[in-house]
Design a protein that fits this description.
With 148 residues, the chain is mainly alpha-helical. The protein contains five helices and no strands. Helices cover 41% and strands 0% of the residues. It comes from Lasiosphaeria miniovina.
Length: 148
Amino acid sequence: MPAIRSRSKRKPPPAGFEDIEEDLLVFNNKMKDAQNTPTDNIPKHQAQWPIFQISHQRSRYIYELYYKKDAISKALYEWLLKNGYADAALIAKWKKSGYDQLCCLRCVQTKETNFNSTCICRVPKADMKEDQDIQCVSCGCRGCATND
């Protein structure tokens, strides 16, 4: 007979969570809407773009609260990362020089591309042709190079 699970042993959120809880709920509602949007008439690769963009916005919001504005404590920041409110790997890239505007991790993974290079959205707009309109196939980004 399987063991009966007791209630969740998740630790309660640290102090200060109440201040940002409403904003996180807004992101959560946007994410649910994006996941429930019908994707019948759009290509498969474009169906996930809104989800990537909302995840990016939520992670950027938490990143800026902690690193730019010093509005949340380290304990709250670590709790948010641990409980999946933000993408820890993406935030780790944002802390590195040259990656501070990165849109998603797929754009810097060279193993998923044909020529073992980064995504087209990582190319600075100054290096592109004037009329060339770019858009990332992975997340729909139109350019996340640092010097744009």
